[in-house]
Amino acid sequence: MRSENIQWPTTIFLIGYHVFLAIALPIYFMHHTLSGAMLGTTIALVFASGLAITAGYHRLYSHLTYKAHPIVEAVLLFFSSVATQGSALQWCHDHRLHHAYVDTDRDPYSIKKGFFFAHFLWMLRAPKPIDPKLVADLMRNKMLVFQHRYYGLCMIVSNLIVFLTVGWLFNDYWGAFLFAWWVRLFLLHHTTWFINSLAHTWGDRHYSEEHSAVDNYILCLLTYGEGYHNYHHTFAHDYRNGIRWYHFDPTKWLIWILSKVGLAKDLKRVSDFRIARQLVVDHKKRLLEKVRSSIHDLGLEKKVSDAGEALLERLTALQTLYDRYKKIPRQEAHALRDQLRTARREWKAHWKEWKKVIKLVNQKPGLQI
Description:
The protein is mainly alpha-helical. Helix content is 65%, strand content 1%. It has a two-stranded antiparallel ribbon.
């Protein structure tokens, strides 16, 4: 990286606080014992500021997956400033570029340039100027414009408020400065950066293989549900990342709760039919590619193709009936219910056949799906 391309203030700040922690933490533990209360407060602050990034910068502003009450926006922007990850306008601008050009040279933090580039090194480069056309919708939000214009002040003041409050509560300003500010920042930064690096490296591609994003369940525990990254890159405008009720996605739960108390609305979610279609289409593509490249069995190739098409046809029929069912009056829906039950049974039967085809492919030597 050429020196003229380095963003020196950011570079000095990021490397500097890592060096500071490497020196300060051993000195602190030589003379102090970390209390459980301070540790718990630090973890709570990591969670609060991280959740503000995922619910605010990411799902609210970058992808417009829901609308929030101004009070919610103000709280999210406060804790996002505490998170020290740049202004919402710059963050969302870069993130929209990432989705538009993922895995290419125009991707600001492309994993194709290396794990450490995506994790950390990309931030040392001078950022691209904000293209107003890319964030025109966000530039109409006065709170976002204010935060961007005075970001340095917002970041310093919000962190001072947190540090002084924690120091006052526990009468330990040195511990609050070290842990509630800098250790908290270290933990939050690296877990957030793992989404750009680890979530494009280690995991499964359940929904699409067109991009490097993967689903990593361990990472979900550290990033408030953001580890379901293959799903997110496939269906970016869903307010959920973890679509099942048992998926660990605190950001999804927060948004849902806010909607139930009138502080959020217009939650966007991808239909189960669209998700199922994507799963079948992508899985069928992978099966056919592997059969053609590894087995060269024309009979099995035809079986995979036919089973996939039949499954998609049943799904289309089921979706058509369901759409009709939602539109007609309840008193007229009785006759359609029987057709829906039949369509569901046919879908399930074809799904069983599809699983048999997958099993059949997996039984071939040297090929596992």
